[in-house]
């Protein structure tokens, strides 16, 4: 019996344009610490604190290396196209009833070059969690992130707010949904 695997997934990696989405490695820790320690990156996320406390990058890598729990995390790796080994991170947090929430961050030196869009489109096309619906929530002061998800086919759902650890405040958000059925 032959199992059909989508063409975008090979050896556990997901092809995403100029990127490969791959599992985290211990060797990624230094770059994670450098990028996540950047205030601009931390302020663009819900969960990264700023300043980044000692051991946070190591803990993140350890959590990222465990797939199949409540969140699957991939590294945006551009080495096959001549770019950096770690350019950012993308994840799917499991919800219930075949739903997940997508989240991502890209290192500032790779902003505005289309890498987030390629990662989101690649992950959605691969649909590794076999979701029926994927949600996205972006900060309203980051409209480019809203463009990333709408260009991938997500539809605006409504306004909300969420807590940002780095900002130590609730931040207005736009919520989007993508039906995959």
Structure report:
The protein has five helices and nine strands. It has helices at residues 29-36, 39-43, 56-64, 115-126, 143-151; strands at residues 9-10, 13-16, 19-22, 71-77, 88-94, 99-106, 133-139, 155-164, 169-179. Helix 1 (29-36) crosses helix 3 (56-64) and helix 4 (115-126) packs parallel to helix 5. The protein is globular and about 40 Å long. The two termini are 26 Å apart. Residues 1-7 have low confidence and may be disordered.
Helices and strands in order, then pairings?
Blueprint: E1 9-10, E2 13-16, E3 19-22, H1 29-36, H2 39-43, H3 56-64, E4 71-77, E5 88-94, E6 99-106, H4 115-126, E7 133-139, H5 143-151, E8 155-164, E9 169-179
Parallel strand pairs: 6-7
Antiparallel strand pairs: 1-2, 2-3, 3-4, 4-5, 5-6, 7-9, 8-9
Helix pairs in contact: 1-3, 4-5
CATH-level-4 superfamily name of the domain at 9-129 = Gcn5-related N-acetyltransferase (GNAT)
Q: Approximately how much helix is present in the residues?
A: 10-25%
Low-confidence stretches: 1-7
Provide the CATH architecture of the domain at 9-129. Answer: 3-Layer(aba) Sandwich
* Average pLDDT figure: 93
Strand order of the largest sheet: 1-2-3-4-5-6-7-9-8
User: In the CATH hierarchy, what is the class of the domain at 9-129?
Assistant: Alpha Beta
Element-level helix/strand string? EEEHHHEEEHEHEE
Number of strands: 9
Query: From the helix content, strand content and strand pairing, which structural class follows?
Result: alpha+beta
The general outline is globular
């Amino acid at each position: 019996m032959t199992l059909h695997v989508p063409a975008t997934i090979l050896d556990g990696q997901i092809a995403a344009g100029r990127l490969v989405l791959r599992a985290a490695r211990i060797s990624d820790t230094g770059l994670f610490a450098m990028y996540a320690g950047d205030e601009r990156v931390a302020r663009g996320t819900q969960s990264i604190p700023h300043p980044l406390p000692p051991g946070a990058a190591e803990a993140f890598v350890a959590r990222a290396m465990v797939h199949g729990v409540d969140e699957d995390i991939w590294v945006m790796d551009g080495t096959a196209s001549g770019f950096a080994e770690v350019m950012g991170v993308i994840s799917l947090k499991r919800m219930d009833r075949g739903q997940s929430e997508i989240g991502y961050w890209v290192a500032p030196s790779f902003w505005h070059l289309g890498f987030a869009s390629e990662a989101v489109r690649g992950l959605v096309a691969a649909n590794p969690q076999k979701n029926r619906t994927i949600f996205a929530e972006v900060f309203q002061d980051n409209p480019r992130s809203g463009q990333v998800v709408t260009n991938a086919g997500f539809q605006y759902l409504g306004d909300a707010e969420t807590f940002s650890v780095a900002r130590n405040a609730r931040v207005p958000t736009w919520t989007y949904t993508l039906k995959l059925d």
